[in-house]
Design brief:
The protein has helices spanning 54-70, 72-80, 105-118, 123-140, 145-155, 164-170, 176-186, 202-216, 267-291, 322-342, 345-359, 366-379, 386-396, 399-410, 435-440, 443-454, 462-475, 479-493, 500-508, 513-522, 554-558; strands at 16-21, 24-30, 38-46, 83-89, 93-101, 189-198, 219-220, 232-233, 237-244, 253-263, 298-304, 309-318, 419-426, 542-543, 549-551, 562-563. It has 577 residues and is α+β, with helices and mostly antiparallel strands. α16 crosses α17 (462-475).
């Protein structure tokens, strides 16, 4: 339990790269912050076999469950010794993570890697865990709409991803013999990425890395064969994915709206996006959730894809038509610019200060410190000074710069290369427009038609709504008169039917969706210039009257997208040995 490090006046924020060779990347940092007899080892065993197909991803998931069952006794012994460990599958391979008292930690690492390498599947284990994996995949179709729509958003932005339906389609090929063959061949070629932190010395870290490589007995995975997660790149334009809920009973639909805001490698843009996201969170929730009561699940955030774009994301799960919800998000974004412009300097400085405080939050323990460094290592950017960089940028960021960022990326009418993707999923309880209707009629027409259905009117067709809105424009009617035209036509078609008065009363409410949709149809913006027809129309993609690209087959559309390059390190990677 001896503490091996010495106290210094300053704390090192970055680990040292001890070795960088084909098949091994070893990082090390001796504890100079907490001075406790504890250690933390994180290990990524990269193997292209792990996620090369939906079937192998199922095998890897099964392998992890069988392995955890095999390690049950060791788990208990480790807890008694003050150790904790986790083994999980990832897109790149397998992650091993151990934390606890350092005296027995590397011994536990040896046991885990040996078990990992020599694992044999018993029939009982296969029967139990194959049923469990199959059940989880089956249950995925019963997820809430926001879960499905987030999966679709990830699928349309990540270069490597298998969905639950892809895995289910391959599940008939899962047998115990095939699983064992997969495990036996999984480590033929590997690359070990390793971070050792805590109460260790360099020689111990080097010996641990050598031990891991020896136990794996793999050939080195060459750089060109690595399956580094990459992002998918979208051309300028407005893209909308329409999907149907797999489960028929759910009354909710959902919209996951992403506005692309430059590349992740843009450090200054990254900080401005974080600031913008912080400023927008409360107003977005207040407007769409509290005031408009569109849905209980409503939030805005940001997301950064390794090697690719950054996005501002706005999500709403609602019983309303996804087209109506998407237009409400658009309306919020149009109105929000004036809010940014009119914000007082005092309020702006308050948001900057809040973000700075979040960045300056002190690390509480070795586990947290190791996690922060591991994120920088595994991302491929090795930006260990990211917090210092962000804080330096925050000192100089201005309100004008925030507005320029908004106009460059978020404002649909001002941005010269605007990109947005709205992943929508529709409840089976509401009518989804056909491709012909999407191509012929604008979003305003569909929003009004969907709102009428939401308010209990299911008689008027999209053509009826389009005719009334055209008459409104030609006659110069206001929204109130247009609403009365719709109600009059509705009442003439449903004379004597029950619930007519109830539906009409709902439409006439001051904050009814129909009123709001009529107003949005009138103020609909001019089309956004996107890329020219490059064969998308031949693949079933529809071009709306406003110039949006609308599609249903995510896999076919995804195949047209370019992949980003791998993340580029922000520093030279020069090993010590």
């Amino acid at each position: 339990m001896e503490v091996k490090s010495e106290r210094h006046d300053t704390v090192c924020e970055a680990p040292t790269l001890l070795k960088l060779a084909e098949g091994l990347e070893l990082w090390f940092k001796q504890d100079d912050r907490f001075f406790l007899p504890r250690g933390n080892v994180r290990l990524l065993i990269e193997t292209p076999r792990a996620y090369e197909s939906p079937l192998t991803s199922v095998f890897n998931q099964l392998f992890m469950m069988v392995l955890k069952d095999t390690l049950t006794e060791i788990t208990y012994d480790a807890e008694i010794a003050g150790l904790w460990f986790e083994i999980r599958d990832t897109i790149e391979g397998i992650v091993v993570h151990i934390d606890g008292f350092n005296d027995k930690l590397l011994q536990l690492l040896e046991i885990l890697v040996k078990t990992l390498r020599m694992c044999k599947v018993e029939q009982t284990q296969f029967d139990v865990y194959s049923r469990e994996v199959k059940k989880k995949l089956d249950n995925a179709r019963h997820s809430e709409p926001y879960g499905h729509v987030q999966t679709n958003t990830s699928f349309l932005n990540q270069g490597i991803m298998w969905r639950f339906m892809d895995k289910l389609a391959a599940f008939d090929l899962v047998t115990i013999d095939r699983l064992q063959l997969f495990i036996d061949s999984l480590f033929e070629q590997t690359r070990v990425q390793m971070l050792v932190t805590g109460n260790f010395e360099e020689r111990e870290a080097l010996a641990a890395a050598s031990m891991v490589q020896s136990l794996l007995g793999s050939r080195a995975l060459p750089e060109y064969a690595r399956r580094v997660p990459r992002a998918l790149l979208h051309e300028p334009g407005v893209y909308v994915h329409h999907a149907l809920m797999p489960e028929k009973g759910n009354v909710n639909s959902c919209v996951d709206y992403s506005v692309y805001t430059g590349m992740t490698s843009d450090h200054r843009g990254r900080v401005v996006l974080d600031l913008l996201s912080l400023i927008m969170q409360e107003p977005f929730f207040d407007q769409l959730r509290t005031k408009e009561q569109l849905g209980y699940i409503t939030y805005s955030t940001e997301r950064k894809y390794n090697g690719g774009h950054m996005t501002l994301r706005l999500l709403v799960q609602s019983e309303a038509s996804p087209i109506y919800v998407r237009m409400r998000i658009d309306h919020f974004l149009r109105e929000f610019r004036s809010r940014l412009d009119e914000m007082t300097l005092e309020k702006f400085d308050g948001y900057v200060s809040s973000l700075r405080v979040a960045r300056e939050e002190k690390i509480k323990n070795l586990f947290e410190e190791s996690g922060r460094m591991w994120r920088h290592v595994s991302s491929g950017y090795y930006e260990f000074d990211r917090i210092a960089t962000d804080l330096e940028i925050l000192r100089t960021v201005s309100q004008r710069e925030l507005l320029e960022f908004w106009d460059t990326y978020v404002d649909k009418q001002r941005a010269s290369a605007y990109i947005s993707l709205a992943a929508t999923i529709w409840s089976t309880k509401i009518a989804q427009p056909t491709d012909e209707e999407l191509e012929k009629f604008g979003d305003g027409v569909h929003a009004v038609h969907g709102s009428l259905e939401h308010d209990g009117e299911r008689v008027l067709s999209v053509e009826h709504v389009d005719r009334v809105l055209r008459q409104m424009d030609e006659a110069g009617d206001d929204e109130e008169r247009a609403l009365e035209r719709i109600i009059s036509e509705y009442e003439s078609m449903v004379k004597g039917e029950a619930d007519v008065e109830k539906a009409v009363a709902k439409m006439r409410k001051p904050a009814s969706h129909v009123r709001t949709a009529i107003a949005m149809a009138r103020e609909q913006n001019k089309p956004v210039c996107g890329k020219a027809d490059n064969g998308l129309l031949n693949m079933g993609v529809v071009r709306s009257p406003s110039g949006d690209w609308l599609f249903r087959e995510a896999s076919a559309f995804r195949a047209t997208l370019r992949q980003s390059g791998a993340p580029v390190p922000t520093r030279p990677l020069v090993p010590k040995y």
